[in-house]
């Protein structure tokens, strides 16, 4: 852990070095990894392409840096500690030695099934250790994993399978979530009716519910691993070979496949993990995210395991069997670093402090927050009732595209301020831009958040459509990566993220494109047109408010609203289901036919006396009708 920062002056010193000479800075960090062949150049880049390469011509396998690297030093240390949904079921622990064996074994299985370097493997699994084993086995054989959150519908799954032309799907029979047993394999079967690239499906048995297995295509996990060798020689990958594709929402309808590569991602995930959380050998670390999101990739699997950490993996939900579950787990495993989302904090806050009372939470040293802005009230609750005022909170701002944490306090080192992500990590050169494309220099400024210089964990492309990557991230401001977030830099130079400035809404820390939700709503045969906006929601951060024009013949409003909700659940998944659906006679449009979302947003949030200029509207009448029918 030679790259560990220990003091605030150490942070400033490292930050200065990282800006003065980024190549040397990152070369030094990268030197602590095992490379099969060292790189020729540290960095080749331009943001016009964009074309970014880190550790050029370096050869490695990321899993050697997770498994072989730790085998003879900390082989018996728990790598993954799994806590099942049902607390009465026995948990499981995989030590680094056992993880090595399992990953090797499944790598051999993938080989046997014909998976080769560059092939795509979809992972659509519950939160079980095998999901992490699957990711690492893909990485070990040089295949590209694309994890799809198991809450997505068969349509959404099929879109992702087809976009990356996956050869293999790894899944389960079903999934436990709280009291529910959710069918999973059936969803995969439906998705595969609309996909042609998949040759093999491997099914992990979790719920023992009945499933259909297609001869020659579908295999049980326990069958395919039985008798398979637990030794495997990791395949050599290039620094810039794709490690994984992860789909995320943007402002257009179609989710995009964010591409991360082996070398840079590896270096960045480990560096940020150790410094932000101030992880020390032997600590027990728990991130409550799902591996279907980037947070699960970087901070349940890759970052912690590259650091030789013990990473807890929890299958269930925060409120089952009761609202004390998180705290029961913290005490049970003596968790030292706990990393969760503001939406979970707010949801638990609503139960009061009683569910916390039976637990000591003594082991906690660091608390983390990710996914959306944390409001001050939730920050204080977390700090007082969970951290007992002794644990620093790291409010970590980053994105699927950034691969790892970008702006965050270093735990116990950077003085914190509620609701502020504070300062950029070493290597991260931020810029705040105004709408005219001018950089806002100095403190006490507010604008759009950009990054001026590459960092190792950054997005390389959007899969299959490089131009989309360029348009989305590198075109708004010349020579800069545009994050899509608004930001304020206060008088101390501290950063506070203000939320998305594009058509992306953040529901419980999940990114949803408004266009994506509208497309799903429009699938309902009676829907003529729709417009979706976000509005402030007590627990979810933002809720989804949909304005829909419908053909109402033979339908009651309530029926239609329910049907539309079902349609969205079917097309995307329950996370995209609108909280409020208002049937409207028309939408506020400009003369050129553009929907004025600003007005819809204002109505949704209830600030009707502050609608701004409506003079360019084609039919200002419509606004009155919308206000009359507004859903509280
Ligand atoms: C890691 C992750 C990214 C978007 C991002 C921003 C919001 C994430 C935040 C935050 C304020 C934080 N976001 N962390 N906003 N403070 N600490 O969440 O990735 O799912 O791609 O979402 O989430 O708006 O642009 P992803």
Automatic annotation (TrEMBL):
Name the domain of life this protein comes from: Bacteria
Keyword terms: Acetylation, ATP-binding, Ligase, Nucleotide-binding
Under the heading CDD domains, the entry gives: ACS
Please list the GO terms describing molecular function.
Answer: acetate-CoA ligase activity; AMP binding; ATP binding
Q: Which residues form the Acetyl-coenzyme A synthetase N-terminal domain?
A: 11-65
The Enzyme Commission number assigned here is 6.2.1.1
InterPro entries, per database record:
Ac_CoA_lig (IPR011904), ACAS_N (IPR032387), AMP-bd_C (IPR025110), AMP-bd_C_sf (IPR045851), AMP-binding_CS (IPR020845), AMP-dep_synth/lig_dom (IPR000873), ANL_N_sf (IPR042099)
List residues of the AMP-dependent synthetase/ligase domain.
75-454
Q: What class of enzyme is it?
A: ligase
PROSITE patterns hit by this protein: AMP_BINDING
Q: Which BP terms in the Gene Ontology apply to this protein?
A: acetyl-CoA biosynthetic process from acetate
List, for all copies, the residue spans of the domain called AMP-binding enzyme C-terminal: 516-594
Name the family the entry cites. Answer: Belongs to the ATP-dependent AMP-binding enzyme family.
The protein's name is: Acetate--CoA ligase
**Source species of the chain:** Cyclobacterium xiamenense
């Amino acid at each position: 852990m030679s790259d560990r920062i220990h003091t605030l002056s150490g942070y400033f010193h490292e930050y200065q070095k990282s800006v003065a000479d980024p190549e040397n800075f990152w070369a030094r960090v990268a030197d602590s990894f095992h490379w099969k062949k060292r790189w020729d150049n540290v960095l080749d880049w331009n943001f016009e392409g964009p074309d970014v390469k880190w550790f050029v011509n370096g050869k490695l396998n990321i899993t050697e840096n997770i498994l072989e690297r730790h085998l003879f030093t900390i082989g018996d240390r728990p790598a993954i500690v799994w806590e099942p949904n049902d607390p009465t079921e026995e948990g499981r622990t995989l030590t680094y030695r056992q993880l090595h064996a399992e990953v090797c074994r499944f790598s051999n299985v993938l080989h046997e099934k014909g998976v080769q370097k560059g092939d795509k493997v979809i992972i659509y699994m519950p939160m079980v250790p095998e999901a992490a084993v699957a990711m690492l086995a893909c990485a070990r054989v040089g295949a590209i994993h694309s994890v799809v959150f198991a809450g997505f519908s068969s349509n959404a799954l099929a879109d992702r399978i087809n976009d990356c032309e996956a050869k293999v799907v790894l899944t389960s029979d079903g999934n436990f979530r709280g009291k529910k047993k959710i069918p999973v394999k059936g969803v995969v079967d439906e998705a595969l009716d609309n996909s042609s690239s998949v040759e093999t499906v491997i099914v992990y048995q979790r719920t023992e519910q009945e499933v259909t297995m297609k001869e020659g295509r579908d295999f049980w996990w326990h069958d395919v691993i039985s008798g398979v060798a637990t030794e495997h020689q990791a395949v050599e990958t290039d620094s810039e070979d794709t490690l994984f594709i992860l789909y995320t929402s943007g402002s257009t309808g179609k989710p995009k496949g964010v591409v991360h590569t082996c070398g840079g991602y590896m270096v960045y995930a480990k560096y940020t993990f150790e410094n932000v959380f101030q992880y020390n050998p032997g600590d027990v670390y728990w991130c409550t995210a799902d591996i279907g999101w980037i947070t699960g990739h970087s901070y349940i699997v890759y970052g912690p395991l590259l650091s030789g950490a013990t990473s807890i993996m929890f299958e269930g939900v925060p409120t089952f069997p009761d609202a004390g579950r998180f705290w029961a787990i913290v005490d049970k495993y003596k968790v030292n670093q706990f990393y969760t989302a503001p939406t979970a904090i707010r949801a638990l806050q609503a139960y009061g402090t009683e569910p916390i009372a039976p637990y000591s939470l003594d082991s906690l040293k660091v608390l983390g927050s990710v996914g959306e802005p944390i409001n001050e009230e939730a920050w204080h609750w977390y700090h007082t009732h969970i951290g007992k005022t002794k644990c620093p909170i790291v409010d970590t701002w980053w994105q699927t595209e950034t691969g790892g944490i970008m702006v965050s306090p270093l735990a116990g080192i950077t003085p914190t301020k509620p609701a502020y992500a504070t300062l950029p990590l070493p290597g991260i050169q931020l810029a705040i831009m105004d709408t005219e494309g001018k950089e806002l220099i100095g403190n006490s400024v507010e604008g759009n958040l950009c990054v001026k210089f590459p960092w190792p964990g950054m997005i390389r492309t959007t899969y299959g459509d490089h131009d989309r990557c360029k348009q989305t991230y590198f075109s708004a401001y010349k020579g800069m990566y545009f994050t899509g977030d608004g930001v304020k830099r206060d008088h101390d130079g501290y950063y506070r993220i203000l939320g998305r400035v594009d058509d992306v809404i953040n529901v419980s820390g999940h990114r949803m494109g408004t266009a994506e939700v509208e497309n799903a709503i429009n699938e309902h045969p009676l829907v003529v047109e729709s417009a979706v906006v976000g509005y402030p929601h007590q627990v979810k951060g933002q809720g989804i408010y949909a304005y829909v024009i419908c053909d109402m013949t033979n339908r009651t409003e309530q029926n239609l609203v329910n049907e539309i909700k079902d349609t969205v659940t079917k097309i995307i998944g329950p996370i995209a289901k609108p909280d409020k659906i208002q049937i409207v006679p028309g939408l506020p449009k400009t003369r050129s036919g553009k929907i004025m979302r600003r007005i819809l947003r204002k109505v949704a949030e209830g600030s009707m006396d502050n609608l701004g200029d409506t003079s360019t509207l084609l039919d200002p009448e419509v606004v009155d009708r919308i206000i009359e029918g507004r859903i509280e």
